[in-house]
């Protein structure tokens, strides 16, 4: 009589259950990364090794039993792993993260997995609704563009996007009107992931942080990511240099220096700065920087202004209201619902879960204040 080890018995039972023939390893990878799980952590909740999970993600096929274990550990139905809407891989080299080195790799992977699902869901929606065409805004720069060149590119981009002289009324809606999909990152994404953008898919994506509850900062973030989409097509992301370029672009895109300068005070004058903030939708900190960069303020005035702003804390004085929100995907799904196509239909067409579809649509929808009524005891 021979005795099998427990591990061999488990392996034999798994083989007897048959392989999941139409298994899609990319979907396993996305589900794992969305949960911020390393392969070793996932393996610990199943009967297979981390090396086996690597093989599944690269094209191997698990048995039905193992697929069920993986689905349970990751909180998705086993149907999610079956081949459906193809997923476009979005790597770190495809995305311009604001703070690449300060963000853990597992958190970046989580955000990129969200972007991969978003691109696939957008493709499904586009089977039913014609979204705005993508405007050609690309104007690549060399390694060391001058501030004057970046200002010129920002002016060209305003022209291409049809922006009239003066403040940009709504930066996020402007991007959406020209075919760029804007989404808010969901709250379960690590908050250390700041705004980022990518062109890895069929449409450019701009993903905004949900934590910056400030209109001026949301506008600057959107303009900053637009700068990457315009200038940094073939540039390795993550360097401080290209982040500085995107900052310069955002400043000039939101408020071209020739138009902004007449509204800036020649000395530190908070009333005048608050008026400029309200008009242009730019933070006081950004306006103080522009006063110094243009040469209206000396180093002493600029340093004193920053000390005053730090003493005020966050949020800074002169709130402009809630941050700018995406609108396009929510509006598209509303049209589908009116035509009789539901989120369940989209889920079946893509083999995503209804919850995943809802998460993407919510990320691309306008946020509205929620009225809460508290009912107290009757007197």
Describe the structure.
The structure is a single chain. By secondary structure, the chain is mainly alpha-helical. It has two domains: about 10-80, lambda repressor-like DNA-binding domains (434 Repressor (Amino-terminal Domain)), CATH 1.10.260.40; about 85-255 and about 320-365, no CATH class. Helices cover about 50% and strands about 5% of the residues. The chain has 17 helices and four strands. A four-stranded mixed sheet has the order 1-3-4-2, sandwiched between helices. Helix 9 (about 215-230) packs across helix 10 (about 240-255), helix 13 (about 285-295) runs antiparallel to helix 14 and helix 16 (about 345-350) packs across helix 17 (about 355-365). The protein is elongated and about 80 Å long. The model has no long low-confidence stretch (mean pLDDT about 90). It holds the Pfam family Peptidase_M78. Keywords: DNA-binding. GO terms for molecular function: DNA binding. This is Putative Xre family DNA-binding protein.
């Amino acid at each position: 009589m021979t005795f099998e080890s427990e591990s061999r018995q488990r392996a034999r039972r798994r083989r007897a259950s048959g392989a999941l023939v139409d298994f899609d390893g990319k979907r396993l990878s996305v589900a794992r990364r969305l949960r911020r799980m390393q392969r070793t952590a996932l393996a610990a909740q199943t009967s297979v090794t981390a090396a086996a999970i690597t093989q599944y993600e690269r094209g191997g096929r698990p048995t039905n039993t193992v697929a069920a274990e993986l689905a349970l550990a990751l909180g998705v139905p086993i149907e999610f792993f079956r081949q459906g809407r193809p997923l476009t891989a979005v790597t770190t080299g495809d995305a311009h993260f604001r703070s690449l080195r300060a963000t853990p790799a597992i958190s970046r992977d989580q955000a990129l997995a969200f972007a991969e699902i978003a691109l696939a869901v957008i493709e499904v929606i586009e089977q039913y609704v014609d979204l705005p065409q993508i405007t050609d805004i690309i104007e690549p720069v060399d390694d060391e563009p001058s501030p004057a060149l970046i200002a010129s590119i920002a002016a060209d981009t305003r022209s291409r996007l049809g922006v009239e002289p003066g403040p940009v009324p709504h930066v996020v809606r402007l991007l959406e009107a020209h075919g760029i999909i804007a989404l808010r990152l969901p709250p379960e994404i690590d908050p250390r992931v700041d705004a980022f953008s990518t062109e890895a898919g069929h449409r450019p994506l701009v993903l905004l942080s949900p934590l910056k509850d400030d209109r001026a900062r949301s506008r600057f973030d959107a303009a900053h990511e637009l700068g990457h989409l315009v200038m940094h097509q073939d540039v390795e992301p993550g360097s401080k240099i290209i982040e500085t370029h995107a900052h310069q672009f955002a400043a000039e895109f939101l408020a071209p220096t020739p138009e902004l300068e007449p509204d800036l005070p020649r000395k530190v004058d908070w009333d005048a700065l608050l008026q400029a903030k309200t008009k242009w939708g730019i933070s006081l900190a950004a306006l103080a920087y522009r006063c110094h960069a243009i040469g209206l303020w000396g180093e002493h005035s600029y340093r004193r202004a920053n000390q005053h702003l730090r003493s005020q804390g966050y949020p800074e004085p002169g709130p402009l209201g809630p941050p700018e929100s995406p609108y396009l995907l929510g509006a598209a799904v509303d049209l589908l619902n009116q035509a009789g196509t539901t989120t369940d239909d989209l889920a079946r067409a893509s083999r995503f879960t209804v919850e995943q579809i809802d998460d993407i649509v919510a990320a691309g929808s306008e946020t509205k204040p929620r009225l809460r009524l508290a009912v107290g005891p009757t007197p």
